[in-house]
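Running low. Invent one:
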Amino acid sequence: MLEDIKQMPIKRRTKGEKTKQLILESAISILAEQGIKGTTHRAVASHADIQLSLTTYYFKDIHALVQQAFQLNSEHITQVTPLLWQPILSLMAQYSKVALRRVGLRIELRDTLTDLFLNFIALNTATYRKQLIVEQQLFNEIQVAPALRDMAAHHYAAQLEPCQHLCQYFSRSKAVANAQILLSLLKQIQYRQLLSDTAVIKQQDIRVMIQQTMTLILDIKPS
């Protein structure tokens, strides 16, 4: 069976598929740089360094091009999400349910998780800045483009999944609600950091916000 898999021919993209991919990647870049209104066939063709006729050949409707660019951007983010969450979920997998009942361990984990989420935010905003900008545009655009709502809902669900996985370690009954709180905080901080090349929110303020949220999720009572 393994030998059969090795001998299977590798499907290579055709020239047309490569061109279409180039157009979509360029559209993502234009969306990040110029927004929806600035995303035109001409702007995308210029960024991709291809003839204008090619963009209109593969995407006759600019709305279809934008929608597929949003979809591709969502796929990019969904692919890297497990890598970003790996240090956090790997840490949690080390502890048993019995151990996690100890208040002392929960306090220790709150501080460790706070540090990990600080790294998570820094890495995400530095490495995937363009993708985050376009993601935010997707969520904003559903107010005027109902056709994007299903895509946005699926994207949100994929982002919520690791948050819920984490929250289930501490309370299954509150896992969904706590996951939504955590995801909202992470997105809010990251989107605000995108407003400038320098940090909009001070590191210490981010630490306090995350730590307070972790206190809620880990159900740590005031001493």
User: Anything to note?
Assistant: Residues 35 and 137 are 8 Å apart (CA to CA). The chain has two domains: 1-60, 73-217.
